[in-house]
Each structure stands twice: as C-alpha cells, then as structure tokens.
C-alpha cells in the first residue's frame, strides 16, 4: 500500500492539489516535504501530533520530512482558525520556544538517520534577514489584495478586523515554501485544513517567481489533514486541567496515558487510524473488540499504550501503567514519590511540619474531616486510608513511617476522595 492510499484509508486526507500528479511524484521520487510549527509556547501539544505523525508516515515510506520551526513567523502570528489577534512575544521568548520545539521534534522524527533523515529548519534564518523593500518587491508583488481577501484565513476575520501584521502572515508562509523549494528541493507542504489558503499561496509564489508553468517537469503540491473533532462535541486536546502537552514536565506521562485511555468509544477507532502506526489489520481486530466487548476498553488501552510510547518512551509507558494499576487497586506502596506526584497532581493538598501529630488532628487541619467528632467516626468506620492502607486506630500518630520518601502522605477518605499532605 503506497503512502497516499494508506492516508486515504485512515481518513487522513482533507484536500490535495493535483492528487494524480502527487501520487505519480511520490512513486517516482524520494520527496522532500515540510510542515511548519510556530513557537507559541515552550512545548508542542497533542493538537500538533497529527501533522507530526503525517511527516513520520512519509518518512517511513521513504520520503524526507522537514520540520520547520517558525522562529520568524512566530513573531507575527497566524490568523488561521482564530477570531482575534494573537499576543506578540519578544524575540527572546520566541527563540526559547523555538529551541524547545526543535528538541521535541527531534525526539519524534528520525534525524540524522539514513538517506531520508528528517531535517529541522527555522524560518528566522531567512525572514529576519529580509529587508522590507526586498520582501515587498520579491514576494508582495506576486499577490493581489483581492487574492488574499478571498482566503478563508483572512475573509473570516474581515468583519471583526485584522491587522496588517497578521494579514501579511500568508506572504511569509509562502516565502517559507519558496525558500525550502530553492534550498532543499522541497516539493510538498502539509498542514491542517485551516492551512489550505496559506499552502496554495506558497505554491502560487513558487510558480510565479520561478515560472514553473512553462516547465512541466517541475511541480509543487499541497496536502491537508482534517481538523480533529470529537463525537461529544468537545474540543480535542483539552481537559479540565487545560491543554495536553507533549512536554512531560507540563503533562506527565501518566496524565498523557490517561487522556487517551479515556477516549470515547465513538472516537477510539478514528484516533487509532489517525495517530497510531498500527496496521489496518490490527485496527480491524480492535473494531471487533469495541463492537463485542466495549466494557473491556481494549482499543482505548492500545491507543494509550501506542501514543505514550511514541511521544515519551517504553519506560514512561510502563510507569504510567504501573501508576494506573496501583491507583485502581489502592495499593500505593510500590510507587515512588515521583510516580505518586504524577498520579495525585490535581488532588487537594495541604502543607504541614514534620512533627508527629494525631491522625484526628491532621484530618481536621487538612480539612479532610470537618470536625474531630466526624474524624473519629471516619476512622472507626474504616473510611480513612494512609498511603492505601486502612487505619482504624483512634490513637494513631502520623509520623515518619507514614511519609512517602519523607515528602508527603496520601490520605483517602471513603472510596474516591484523595488528599495530599506535604511536609515542609
């Protein structure tokens, strides 16, 4: 199965320019393709994963991906898919974000490996050195205002207003495609469907500035992937805690694993096709699991395993599974302090000193029980657990033996109410 056929079968192609020509181009050449990632934060999030996996699929099919970090365009802001202007960051902030994204992309694609090794580029290399006069003469002259106004990314903003800064973004991205075509022989740009206007504008710039229409041997192409929607109508990639990041310091591997594990039955097969590198035969078997035994959540577990391993590592996956199993069973003894912190990152917490204190007093101080009378009842009724172990001794003093690596104690009241006591 060739790359385009595979993408089609997975539902991953929204739009292509000259599909027949692109198919022939891919069959006859080792194609260089690129996708841009603007540094709007110090980490990629799972909204970026789909274009990253597309680059990787092309790489595994023998083609050469270019991960373009927008150190230059990130100073401007892409209006695509937005109703308001972006806030502008300083040069230093954007550079820091760009460096962080480059490092993450290097962990997801194969750099410096073989003839089709991935390449990282930063458009600040050419955009920051281009004078305004050269930009207007060499790029701006190829685009009419009417042409730009007709693009969705601009047209959708006209009513509420768009600055000249963001209006110009399309030209900057077009210049990216031209530079990568000239310097890397890059002939394909991919992106989300909201990037269609920017992609076709880049193709237009290449044609006009290089007069490709008179040379049938040389062509450039564009391909977009669908924007991801969820069956329940909520936005993909958002949780109660905010965005799901690829940086383990911002979203722990355990949280990342749990995000995929909680996928709706109506979405899980689509996400397996979109994001994983499982074969169509393997996914067909998981379809049967969803249809015959959805309560086992076999497909969700496989999705969570594949994605955690891809973004983080096999070790991180094993850790996430270990945390999940320990929390489900209530047995926290085998977890490290770091694993406990991942699993209980969002539970209510209170700080106290390290001096031993009666459990009854601690329950009231931490507002786990509303009063000493209620605390006594909770303990006697077996509703209080310290680090997963039930405590029914009214005279119990919480001390060093109850602390995990001397840092904290996890208190559970009832079946699901967890609290973290931190020691200063």
UniProtKB/TrEMBL annotation:
Residue span, RNA-binding S4 domain: 357-419
Database matches in SUPFAM superfamilies: Alpha-L RNA-binding motif (SSF55174), Nucleotidylyl transferase (SSF52374)
Record has DNA-binding as a keyword: no
Residues that coordinate or bind L-tyrosine: 34, 169, 173
Family assignment from sequence similarity: Belongs to the class-I aminoacyl-tRNA synthetase family. TyrS type 1 subfamily.
Protein name: Tyrosine--tRNA ligase
Main subcellular location: cytoplasm
Pfam families registered for this protein in UniProt: SYY_C-terminal, tRNA-synt_1b
Transmembrane intervals: none
Subunit field text: Homodimer.
EC number(s) recorded for this UniProt protein: 6.1.1.1
One function term, GO molecular function aspect: tyrosine-tRNA ligase activity
Subcellular location: Cytoplasm
Organism: Aciduricibacillus chroicocephali
Function text: Catalyzes the attachment of tyrosine to tRNA(Tyr) in a two-step reaction: tyrosine is first activated by ATP to form Tyr-AMP and then transferred to the acceptor end of tRNA(Tyr).
Residues binding ATP, per UniProt: 238
InterPro entries per the UniProt record, alphabetical: aa-tRNA-synth_I_CS (IPR001412), aa-tRNA-synth_Ic (IPR002305), Rossmann-like_a/b/a_fold (IPR014729), S4_RNA-bd (IPR002942), S4_RNA-bd_sf (IPR036986), SYY-like_C (IPR054608), Tyr-tRNA-ligase (IPR002307), Tyr-tRNA-ligase_bac-type (IPR024088)
Motif annotated as 'HIGH' region, chain positions: 39-48
Catalytic function, reaction form: tRNA(Tyr) + L-tyrosine + ATP = L-tyrosyl-tRNA(Tyr) + AMP + diphosphate + H(+)
Group of enzyme by EC: ligase
Keywords (A to Z) from UniProt: Aminoacyl-tRNA synthetase, ATP-binding, Cytoplasm, Ligase, Nucleotide-binding, Protein biosynthesis, RNA-binding
